[in-house]
């Protein structure tokens, strides 16, 4: 039993769960026909890769872990740049315009699953707060970025569901600017990762 519940096996299992979450989010991003939502699935894949990196580097030297954290910071930065770019495109009206509304139970189920993943991201984030390993801190930071991307999906689906039934003059404003606002927070996370990387002594 002890071997079955070893930290390495648990990390591999959690990585697999994260991969399933990524595939789900990518699928609904494609079904939503929105580039911003498709791109919003990427951080979950990054969390999956980082968890695999943790399995590989959990017993490595501080120098090796610093290299692993560098890859995390670089991947997060590249994602944030792409996400902000497409968020600006969305504000400018450059996005896929054939928007599925996901009305009724289908929309509710989509939101319920995304909300569940958002909650799980927060739970995983909280569970890593007492860790000192820089790889674990990287997972925590990218998990936070993933949670912000989940929030983008939740906002977008809520807008699509409520817009036909609730009169509100700023639905499009919320849909267009929420990704940009959350993307700015993601940018601060990426910057903090580079600061941590520079201060980490191997």
* Shape by Cα distribution: globular
Radius of gyration from the alpha-carbon trace, in angstroms: 18 Å
Let me know the number of strands.
Answer: 0
In the predicted model, the low-confidence regions spanning at least 5 consecutive residues are none
Sheet of most strands: none
**Sheet/helix structural class:** mainly alpha
Q: Quick gist of this model?
A:
It is built from seven helices and no strands.
Give the tags:
mainly alpha, 7 helices, 202 residues
Please provide a written account of the structure:
With 202 residues, the protein is mostly helical. It has 7 helices and no strands. The chain has helices spanning 7-31, 35-39, 42-57, 62-91, 104-127, 134-162, 171-199. α1 runs antiparallel to α3, α4 (62-91) runs parallel beside α6 and α6 runs antiparallel to α7.
Layout of SSEs?
Layout: H1 7-31, H2 35-39, H3 42-57, H4 62-91, H5 104-127, H6 134-162, H7 171-199
Helix pairs in contact: 1-3, 3-4, 3-6, 4-6, 4-7, 5-6, 6-7
């Amino acid at each position: 039993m002890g071997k079955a519940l070893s930290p390495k096996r648990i990390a591999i299992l959690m990585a697999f769960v994260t991969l399933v979450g990524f595939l789900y989010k990518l699928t609904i991003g494609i079904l939503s026909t929105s580039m911003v939502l498709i791109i919003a699935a990427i951080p979950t894949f990054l969390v999956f890769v980082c968890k695999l990196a943790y399995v590989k580097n959990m017993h490595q030297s501080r120098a090796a872990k610093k290299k692993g954290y560098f890859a995390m910071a670089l991947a997060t930065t590249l994602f944030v740049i792409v996400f902000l770019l497409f968020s600006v495109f969305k504000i400018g009206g450059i996005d896929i315009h054939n928007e599925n509304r996901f009305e009724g139970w289908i929309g509710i189920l989509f939101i319920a699953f995304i909300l569940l993943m958002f909650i799980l991201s927060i739970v995983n984030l909280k569970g890593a707060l007492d860790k000192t390993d820089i790889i674990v801190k990287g997972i925590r930071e990218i998990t936070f970025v993933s949670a912000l991307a989940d929030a983008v999906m939740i906002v977008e689906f809520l807008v699509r569901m409520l817009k036909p039934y609730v009169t509100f003059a700023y639905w499009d404003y919320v849909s267009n600017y929420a990704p940009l606002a959350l993307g700015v927070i993601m940018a601060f996370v990426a910057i903090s990762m580079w600061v941590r990387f520079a201060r980490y002594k191997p």
